[in-house]
Amino acid sequence: MIRSYAALLCISLCLFAIPSVHAADWLFPFPINYLDSMVGEVDAFSDGKTVSKVHTVQLHTLIGSALTSEISNKLSLYKETFIPVETLKEWGVLLTFSSSEMEITLSFIQDVRKEQALTFNTPYSPPIYSKSAFFTNINNLNFGVSDTRGVETQSDEQSWNIEWNSTGNFAGARGVNYKFSGYFDGGTDEEQNFYRGDISAFIDRADVPYRLTFGDQVNTTSGHLPSQQFGGFGFERNYSALQPNRSIQVGGTQALILEESADIDLYINGSYITEFRLPPGRYRLDDLPLSSGSNDVRLEIEYQSGRTDSILYSVFYNSKLLKEGISDFGVYFGAPSEIEDSRYEYDTGSLISTAYYDYGLTDYLTLGLNGFYHKDGLILGGLSTFGTPLGNIGFRLSGSQSSEYDETGYIASLDYAASLWDQNNYSAPNLRIALESYDSFSYQPWTEEGSTGHSAAVSYTFGITDNIYLSLSYNLDKESGYDTEWSAEASTSWSYSNVIIGLGVTHEEDPNEGTSNTEGVISVDWTWSSDDGQYFADLGYASDTEVLRANFSKPSKNQVGKYGYALSADVESDQGQYQLRGDYVSNRVRYDGDITYYNATESEDSVVTSFRPSTAFTISDGTLSWSRPIYGAAGVVQVHDTLESEVLINSDDDDNAEAISSNGLNNAISLSTAHTSQSFTVYAPDAPIGYDIGNYFYNVTPGAYTSHIFTVGSDASKTVIGRLSLGDGKPLSLTQGYLVSSTGDSTPFFTNKGGRFVVEGIRSGDYKIQTMDSDITGQIHIPESEDNLIRLPEIQLTQGANNE
Predict the structure, then answer these.
(1) Which pLDDT score is estimated for 23?
(2) Residues 15, 103 within the same domain
(3) pLDDT digit string, tens, across residues 213-228
(4) Which of 61, 209, 694, 720 could form an SS bridge with 242, CB 3.0 to 4.6 Å?
(5) Which residues pair with 468 in a beta bridge?
(6) Are 684 and 726 members of one domain?
(7) What residues have CB less than 8 Å from 287, skipping those under 6 apart?
(8) Pairing of β 451-463 and β 210-218
(9) Which one has a higher pLDDT value, 552 or 689?
């Protein structure tokens, strides 16, 4: 990108150094931006205020594919090397020049731009990784202290905790990645306790793709296979991690494993239920406060370090429909693991192995095989998914065999998803049907007896208008030896402005528990956000949970010096929770704290006060950086010794920065998406006049946990202004050439009509002047100086074949 100081000086010299050339245009390369993104560079003639002509071939290369065939052909057949901006305007291609930013903005009249289909199905290109440190160690540290005090008795209890999450890499993106964690906690009435989390190492090959993992992990499931936590090795495709931008039309499941403390908002079928905080650990869905018959469960997770995540659990199986020729697989082997009293226990006497393989035979047919083996039982199965104009149909068939219980069983499942009579859901499935029949089947035949029965689940949501929705659902479960259980729900919601009102009725029949209940449900939700997007509020009530909630918040931005806060209340008939929460983003530490008041009719009211700072240290070979927590890979920014200025990373127009690096202490930012190109900017607001910091825009393609070091500034930081003349005193006008150092390094220059030139990013020393006309040569000396902007005396060149 060329927003360079040199280009600005060159144009300024052309305009002001010689009054007679005010109306002249000079040729320079300029960046072209479209929709706030740089699409490339073109050579253009400019007088410093406007652009008159641009390079025809360069422009067509950049934008030809976005034009209609008629306009694209006109541009490609244009005979002149440079095409006037006015001609492009007549064709509907608008180029606007910014003299302050030294860039060209591209826009179109609608009729000349080709209709674009929004799609993620772009051809996949293997990553070209950026240079990284050989050894990386990223250490995220979370600290927490809390005080719980009884309001009446004034009893108090303190607790504290330290969470250490470490990730790293050996030998770059194609080397070995690792992660491990450790936790230390204690309190007034608790013993100090140290325990570890999952430990694993893995190797990625994103271009194949595959990931080979050793250590603690969870297998990816397919068909009717169970999810198992184990210690061992896994070999899998893992498209979502290795090729995150590639569309393969595939879904999957995700286990809830918290590597650090987190606040969790729970939603069931789109309705808010409650908020709670969990420490690091493994959690089963059964551990969460869910009600029976929940079709969709969404967990919105905010980790202490500031990272967020969203996890969706559904009763409906997500059938995979892979593109033609795409395969997805996983092979796993190891010892089942459990955590008992904060210690990992591996059942080495009962090793497991599991595998699955799915293949897209065509774009409309996917077939797969899967299996799970344990010494006391096994599961074998297959699946098929058909894509039809009426929706996706998935069929799964599996058998289980148990030597522990001496039984053999089977299960058959039919899954259907379609978008039916709904123009408001943008082709997302709004009708889902799941039918299942099983006979003596067990999902874990080595520990559980099989069961016999059948089940059905149906869910349909219909957008009557843009503001009115109708939802219907039905669930049935009949297991041998028990009476049939079923439930049904019908609801409608109406939205107007910021208000959503829901009305519904549910009926549940469970003869086994003696339950027969019909209940009407009403819910009211109001949401608000300020025009500038800084403040949010919501108020809601649902009769089925009998929870009234209110919230007002100002979220913090991921910028130094920003802060956020929230006031919330969850009120039920017999208890309530009221919270004031705040967070502050400093340059190297994120602070988070809250005061929560609990009241209940059957216990003493209490107040819990918590304070939680988080920070990170990254070691990249021999380079240390201190920053806020890092997710994924790290971009380490260090400031060169010659630059006496702070460096702002990813700053905006008001100099609000994501992070600030200084000469004495490096900082780092997260490169959170591995194996894909990402970018960031640097800016030195207090750099001396004429100091060239080098690149200010960086593209980087990281591995999973690699680190990449970027140095802002260098010894070659001087900007030089001079004038070249020939032996007869005439200026060397409108000439391109090079300054060649004694080591052979060359720096290009360009003279204006008066022979003036500007060169930036150059060291002190002696240089040979070589012009495009090799018959003209000379010497230049750039003196040692503390000044970075150096004006040289007039330099006289020699002309002739024998002059060096």
Answers:
(1) 43
(2) yes
(3) 999 999 988 899 998 9
(4) 209
(5) 494
(6) no
(7) none
(8) unpaired
(9) 552
